[in-house]
Amino acid sequence: MEKNLVNIIKEAGIVGAGGAGFPTHVKIDTNCDYVIVNAAECEPLVRVDQQLMEYKSEEILKALNMVVRHTGAKKGIVGIKAKYKGALHELRKIIKKYPKISIHELGNFYPAGDEQVLVYEILGKIVPEGGIPLGVGTVVLNSETLLNIYHAAEKNLPVTEKYVTVGGEVKNPITLKVPIGVKIKELIGIAGGSQIEDFVVVEGGPMMGNVVEDMDTPITKTTKALIVLERNHPVVVSIEKSLHMTIQQAKTACMHCNLCSEVCPRRLIGHSLEPHKLIRIASYGSTLDKTTPITTAFLCCDCRLCEYACIMDLQPWKVNIALKKKLSEKGIGYVDKKSNLTANEFRNFQRYPLGKLIMQLGIDKYDVKAPLVDKKYEFPSVELLLKQHIGVPTASIVSVGDRVTKGQLIAKVPEGKLGANLYSSIDGVVKLADENKIVIFRV
Ligand code: SF4
Ligand code: SF4
Description:
It is built from 18 helices and 19 strands. It is α/β, with parallel strands linked by helices and about 450 residues long. Strand 18 (about 430-435) and strand 19 (about 435-440) form a beta hairpin. It is globular and about 65 Å long. One iron/sulfur cluster binds near residues 273, 275, 305 and 306.
């Protein structure tokens, strides 16, 4: 079975369920030394991976074992926070069955789930600048991605469902398994509805998420969390602050103190990223340092932690995003990628405590359980986006009026291109099929 694992994963349309949606078949089509399960779930209020590791531990370890065998890895390691006691309890009960698999307990800091931070925490290896974990012989997979691999390899099931935490200002915070393509408002309804009138949703979590205004927006293969917040909540205000405002504020208020760089997780593992220097671009049009080119902005992972270290409430991360965009438009990248790196000697003391961050974000009252309810809900329709992964959009192979069943292939990756197949997530009739989406109504 493992011989064809790449094809099984490719056929099933599996992408990274915890990030940007990189097609998993490409990621595991390699040899490596280590396969790490990213179950750190450091994004505040998100409760998916920690519960999957508890309730689906058997399936996830089986899938991890398959990937370890397929890649020829020496070890598979579950990277999980020590505070996820229920998950650890379940994992310890079954781990003896897998001699190559071990558990690495992580501290409660942010961003423990950043791939490069995770690799350093577990293996003590530093991913070269601008590189990926494979640069140090490692493949990192999210817990839910592994669960999808199990379903594809053992049950012949493609990706049609997604686990999503619904939290914040809802009556009953909850974690649900829902068909891909259902609407945000339907999930908020299952969570008992919003408790406030004027709200928005932060999709993905308060640190790295985006603000969504349209409650008809569909769930995709990468949706992890929907956090309902007041429109004027500090988290929303921070995400929505314009770049112009950020730069104006940086010009007048930045003290060039370097507190943002002190906490930067990529700087702490030894990368040449120093947000306090990059933000000088706003004030002086230069980093004022010949050894720090502005292209080091490409080393930023957009974790946004620098904002919460800054006593002036500035947003170096937003400046970095703008720099990356501008430089990319001009065809300029970061070329001087260093690989012989040493982590900061004070790193262990400078990791940012999650509890402190939650208080700073003003979300402590929402930091509650969101129990996983593995129940089947009926939805009247789904809207399946043709691009919900890294790569090119899938091409629809259905037409308006076609009857489809759950698990039926409805859009394919164009031959030779990077992407992920798409399957119907309910039984129904195709009501719309264009270059962006397929809408299916239940029958
Ligand atoms: S952005 Fe904030 S933390 Fe960074 S150097 Fe300026 S004032 Fe200091
Ligand atoms: S967002 Fe800020 S703290 Fe995070 S990697 Fe980028 S510069 Fe560093």
